[in-house]
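PROTEIN–LIGAND DATA SHEET

This sheet pairs a single protein chain with one bound small molecule, magnesium ion, given as SMILES. Inputs appear in the order they were entered. The predicted three-dimensional arrangement of chain and ligand is reported afterwards as a token string under its own label.
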Amino acid sequence: MAKFLSDTELQSINSWITKLERGGRRSYAETDVIEALRLRYKLMGTGKHRLVFDMGNGYVLKVARKKSGITCNRNEVVLYEQAPRSLQQYLCEIVDYGDGWLIMPNMQRTVHRRKHAKKLAKIWKRFLKFGVNIHDVLRKNNRMIRAGNVRLKNKKELVIIDYGNWHIERNSG
Ligand SMILES: Nc1ncnc2c1ncn2[C@@H]1O[C@H](COP(=O)(O)OP(=O)(O)OP(=O)(O)O)[C@@H](O)[C@H]1O
Ligand SMILES: [Mg+2]
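PREDICTION REPORTED AS:
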């Protein structure tokens, strides 16, 4: 496997994750996390659980910003590795990972939140049949895509970029 992170980068991520695992605070301001990590990458996305950095090489690095983010990243890896091919095709590829972090291709093509919703609802149902509820990809009775979590792979095909919350309750912080 290609090496995506340097030893120094791994070390600073690891010590941040260790801090979270040991308890840490319930949540941290974005700037505190960025300062603790001291990565050379630009922040490109923020979620409730993770910070997403643009590695500048076509990939993004997702790092837990609080304890639940570690679980999200682990969930994402487990689902990606255990999903059958027929479902894995809808999940953004994970090219490398460790405790509390993972690396994915940077997906830039945004979806049409309403036009693509039907297609995504079908995909969501297929995951339900598999026993996994990727609940936060849709909203408003499945008529709208939660755009932050889904991208277009090409002109037509959807790819889910946030599939780490499938066991976490909708309103958990
Ligand atoms: N593979 C990717 N390519 C491009 N942008 C991404 C990718 N993964 C995540 N992002 C960006 O980073 C944001 C946060 O990532 P993600 O949704 O995975 O974090 P989260 O903490 O699980 O979010 P949430 O608040 O939805 O639970 C996304 O909304 C998106 O804008
Ligand atoms: Mg998200």
